[in-house]
Amino acid sequence: MSFGHHNRAFGASTRMAATHEQTAEELYGEPENFLEVEVRNPQTHEFGRKTYTDYEIVCRTNIPVYKLHTSTVRRRYSDFEWFRDMLERETKKVNIPPLPGKVFTNRFAEDVIEQRREGLERFLQIVAGHPLLQQGSRVLVAFIQDPAFNKDSYDI
Asked: pTM for this one?
């Protein structure tokens, strides 16, 4: 008789467990290594006759070579050009994707700035998603995390 009672209790607990839906995080946990980058919030600056647009880069990661789990920096298009050149010098094993093209007319129009932002984000997501670069590129770490980053004083 006690065996039947035990069996009913076991069946009840099984039904209760089946009604709880697990979240993806409960099922799989946090990814072992992740690196997410987002390019957003373009701002155009005017200094006398010079005008330029810079972009906010937001980085979220749990990879140990990155000093910060979350960081935000601002970079200009010319910084991205330099960064791409440095990546090509740093590694010959990875085919570095192209940047969105240079714009010569209406480059400060909202739609042009947004197209460039989208292109820069695609570029950065491809680069940051490459396993060899995401864990072994010093220039990538500096470019997306270091607010004091200066292309003129950076040495590879």
From this structure: 0.77
3-class SS string, 82-117? HHHHHHHHHCCCCCCCCCCCCCCCCCCCHHHHHHHH
Residue-wise pLDDT for 25-38, tens only, equals 666 666 678 899 99
Contact by Cβ (8 Å): 37, 63: no
Query: Token pair of 136, please?
Result: 């072994």
Domain chopping of the chain, boundaries: 35-145
Instruction: Between 8 and 27, name the one with better pLDDT.
Output: 27
Q: What architecture does CATH give domain 35-145?
A: 2-Layer Sandwich (3.30)
Q: Where are the alpha helices (DSSP H) in 1-156?
A: 2-19, 24-28, 77-90, 110-129, 131-136, 138-145
Report pLDDT digits (tens) over 107-143: 888 999 999 999 999 999 999 999 889 888 899 999 9
Cα separation of 15 and 6, whole Å?
A: 15
The one-character DSSP state at 148 is T
